[in-house]
UniProtKB/TrEMBL annotation:
It catalyses: ATP + H2O = ADP + phosphate + H(+); Couples ATP hydrolysis with the unwinding of duplex DNA by translocating in the 3'-5' direction. Pfam families: DEAD, Helicase_C, PriA_3primeBD, PriA_C, Zn_ribbon_PriA. The keyword DNA damage does not apply. Residues 473-500 form a coiled coil. Component of the replication restart primosome. One of its GO terms (molecular function) is DNA binding. Residues 280-446 form the Helicase ATP-binding domain. PANTHER family: PRIMOSOMAL PROTEIN N. Zn(2+) 2 binds at C517, C520, C535, C538. GO terms for cellular component: primosome complex. It comes from Salibacterium halotolerans. One of its GO terms (biological process) is double-strand break repair. This is Replication restart protein PriA.
């Protein structure tokens, strides 16, 4: 037997399968999707088994040295998905595969066998390895074919489990569980327990109703019924309950209690949106659906109901949400409905925690995975539904290798599993909306808010007029008045400051000097904490200077409006207001984000001031005023999506107001009040915005009318970058069809990062079947320079960012 192995060397030369002999003692253990150690030149390296075959073209093959996984870490589906990703995103196969495996096991963790069988019941060949203990090292056991096949049998029938031993794992934690003894739980226990044992009867009835004979944690019983452990102990003594313990996974949400949530009656528009999704699920049909629902229309409830259907069919679901809206509030809605069926994949988890969640999915112990971008790789085997919330979010695109878009991966998996893919948004991306308009996706519309709540009134303030009046503050007169009014009424408000393309920079008023990063072509940002100037691209920092380094003037001034500066101004203008500020500085510590929001929810502050991280998902009933301090900062970025992003952001932010009984009001401050993004956001009019923006895109030849590929060339030597970029542009112009446009080369919007100069070329095309091959050839040609001279040529298919 031979293994075709994709080795862990990300280079063009090694981007293919290598054949290795499978030694006889490993034959039974080896499956595609497992990782192995193989000899490679003088070294020994890791690789994924891609295929197992019984022949090879080669006359001499070296043997596989070691098998690293007890079970495949990649399913057959994932192996194919990786091939597709490598092709579509122009990356190496190994890079695609590595991105699907949790980082905790990417190294070479030891594997431990645990047995549930008494020593006497162990097969003879395995006895010496356990030696009286219930654990043994996997690496020792799999040395011989006999022991390996005995192990395979034991794991097959569940008598043994194999697990990775992670370094940060500090012993296993056990949870105390109880379950109802005996097969058929009775409905009424008062007869058997006696009418005086009220609490005990209550426990038994509650458990049999909710769990039947399934085990439940002691904690959960106590939390739900407010009973002491003594009550449970009495039931254990009387043999009504059995006590057991369960290995606990590190559950980051373990301190929360999730009460069974009330399922609301669906509104008519929710029913209409849900029906086609349910039908596709029942008919096991691939069906991409775009759910366009205004903020507060109840999209999440549609997701929850669709998942209920999935679970009824004994299938599994993936829910993708953008990292910043993966708040505890969001997670709670899923946990409340589906409890322990849910795994959460979150970037704030430690790598051990992430692995635990992944393992629950891999072992089939959960049925729903909620998570950010990479959760799209959740290793489920029977997917019945994939959901992408806020499908327009740019963060679904990974900005580093492999540069995949989670939406594309989700659609691929939906096709593979023949199931619907539900993409939801109040402001669908124009790409998706265009596809829905052409019936490539099914369009589902929810134009009304739940309970007919009205959309908030949006007022646009012209800040140029304020400036003419002599108002230099961050607040227009009207906004300030409204804020005072809310303070008196004890209602809450959110102030939103768009930081993207907007920063607090430092400038000398005498000579115009601005502080910029010595390694990157970008101005430094002032951070009040520590009085430091920092580079947001490379992390470089320096203390704020006292005098200008160029002219030694002392007239150093801050420009732009950072959250810290606004907070200071607020404190001055409204000294009685309680303010919570949320930005990268106040939320960098783990859990800080959640603490601040909780505190705001409890009403401990009047004003929540923050960056785009507060634009999403907040659902607080007492918010009646939303202020957007500078709506147009993003409009001027060198990015064809600038208008779309502005419209999306304004819509999201205004969606925070008036979600409950109290009506909401939104104030948008801007220097370009006439811009169509701002006008249509004011009118809550997605369709008009989309029409106008589509016309713009058509005129300028941008997506969704054309596809784009961005090629960025970087090197320490500016001349080399220019020369290479010019050669690449030439080459592409010659090789691509005349219909394709090659723009550039030009200097990248950020001309230098980490001391490396950057140039870019852009390809615009409609139909270019040879493009991938041409790009791969180009990569191959520059391979040597990239490896030896540290030249980078990065290819971004359908880029989301142009920096
Ligand atoms: P969206 O995601 O579309 O902005 P949500 O799903 O957050 O909207 O719903 C907005 C609010 O309406 C939430 O508080 C939710 O609990 C509530 N809600 C959703 N569906 C219903 C319904 N059918 N009946 C009553 N309330 C609902
Ligand atoms: Zn100066
Ligand atoms: Zn820098």
């Amino acid at each position: 037997m031979y293994a075709k192995v994709i080795v862990d060397v990300a280079a063009a030369r090694t981007d293919k399968a290598f054949d290795y002999l499978i030694p006889e003692e490993l034959e039974e253990m080896v499956h595609p999707g497992m990782r192995v150690m193989v000899p490679f030149g003088p070294r020994s390296i890791q690789g994924f088994i891609w295929k197992v075959t019984d022949h090879t073209e080669l006359s001499r093959v070296k043997p596989v040295k070691e098998v690293l996984d007890p079970t495949p870490v990649l399913t057959g589906e994932m192996l194919e998905l990786g091939e597709w990703m490598a092709e579509e995103t122009v990356c190496f196969l190994i890079t695609a595969y590595q991105s699907m495996v949790p980082s905790a096991i990417r190294a070479k963790p030891k594997k431990i066998i645990r047995t549930n069988v008494e020593a006497a019941g162990l097969p003879e060949v395995l006895k010496p390895f356990f030696d009286g203990k219930d654990e043994a090292a996997w690496d020792d056991v799999v040395q011989t074919k006999e022991a390996a096949s005995a192990l395979k049998q034991m794991t097959g029938d569940g008598s043994m489990t194999v697990d990775y031993q992670l370094k940060d794992k500090t012993g296993k934690k056990m949870i105390r569980m109880v379950r109802i003894a005996g097969g058929n739980p009775e409905d009424e226990y008062s007869g058997t327990l006696g009418s005086k044992a009220v609490k005990q009867v209550q426990v038994m009835n509650w458990m049999s109703r909710h769990y039947g004979t399934k085990a439940v944690s002691v904690r959960e019983v106590q939390d739900n019924l407010q009973v002491t452990f003594g009550v449970l102990q009495a039931l254990i003594k009387k043999d009504f309950l059995l006590e057991e313990s369960l290995e606990s996974y590190r559950d980051p949400y373990e301190n929360r209690i999730f009460t069974e949530s009330q399922r609301p009656l669906l509104t008519n528009q929710q029913k209409e949106a849900l029906e086609p999704v349910q039908n596709a699920m029942r008919e096991q049909k691939y069906d991409p659906c775009l759910l366009h629902g205004v903020t507060g229309s109840g999209k999440t409830e549609v997701y929850l109901r669709a998942i209920e259907e999935v679970l009824k069919e004994e299938k599994e679901a993936i829910v993708l949400v953008p990292e910043i809206s993966l708040t505890p509030q969001m997670v709670e809605r899923f946990k409340a409905r589906f409890g322990s069926e849910v795994a959460v994949l979150h970037s704030a988890l430690s790598s051990g925690e992430k692995y635990d969640e992944w393992r629950k999915i891999h072992r089939g112990e959960v049925k729903v995975a909620v998570g950010a971008r990479s959760a799209v790789f959740a290793p489920f085997r029977h997917l019945g539904l994939l959901i992408i919330d806020e499908e327009h979010e740019g963060s679904y695109k990974q900005e580093d290798h492999p540069r995949y878009h989670a939406r594309q991966v989700a659609l691929w998996r939906g096709r593979w599993h023949s199931c619907p893919v539900l993409m939801g948004s109040a402001t669908p991306s124009l790409e998706s909306y265009a596809r829905a308009s052409k019936n490539v996706y099914r369009l589902l519309e929810m134009p009304h808010r739940v309970n007919e709540a009205v959309m908030p009134e949006v007022e646009v303030m012209d800040m140029r007029k304020e400036l003419k009046k002599g108002n230099r503050s961050a607040f227009s007169e009207q906004l300030l008045e409204k804020m005072q009014d809310r303070l008196e009424k004890k209602e809450q408000m959110v102030l939103f400051l768009n930081r993207r393309g907007y920063s607090t920079f430092v400038m000398c008023r005498s000579c115009g000097y601005t502080a910029s990063c010595p390694h990157c072509e970008i101005t430094l940002t002032y951070h009040h904490t520590g009085r430091q100037l920092k580079c947001h691209y490379c992390g470089y920092g320096e203390p704020l200077m006292q005098t200008c380094p160029d002219c030694h003037s002392e007239h150093i001034r801050f420009f732009g409006t950072g959250t810290q500066k606004v907070e200071e101004e607020l404190t001055r203008l409204l000294p009685d207001a309680g303010i919570i500020r949320m930005d990268v500085d106040t939320t960098s510590r783990k859990g800080a984000h959640e603490k601040l929001l909780d505190s705001f929810r409890r009403g401990e502050a009047d004003i929540l001031l923050g960056t785009q991280m507060i634009a999403k998902g907040l659902d607080f009933p007492k918010i009646t005023l939303v202020g957007v301090l500078a709506a147009d900062t993003m409009l001027h970025l060198p990015d064809f999506r600038a208008s779309e992003r502005t419209f999306q952001l304004l819509t999201q932010v205004s969606g925070r107001a008036g979600r409950a009984e109290l009506p909401g009001e939104v104030v948008v401050q801007t220097y370009t009040p006439e811009h169509y993004s701002i006008q249509h956001a004011k009118g809550h009019d997605y369709h008009s915005f989309a029409r106008e923006e589509m016309a713009q895109r058509k005129r300028a030849g941008y997506p969704p009318y054309y596809y784009l590929t961005l090629i960025t060339i970087a090197h320490e030597d500016a001349a080399k970058v220019m020369k290479t970029a010019a050669r690449i542009a030439d080459r592409l112009r010659k090789q691509l069809s005349p219909e394709a446009g090659v723009l550039g080369p030009t200097v990248s919007p950020i001309a230098r990062i980490k001391d490396r100069y950057r140039y870019q070329c852009m390809i615009k095309y409609k139909n270019e079947p040879e493009l991938i091959r041409i790009l791969n050839d180009m990569n191959a040609e520059y391979q040597k320079e990239m490896a030896e001279e540290n030249l980078t040529i990065s290819i971004d298919m359908e880029p989301q960012m142009f920096m």
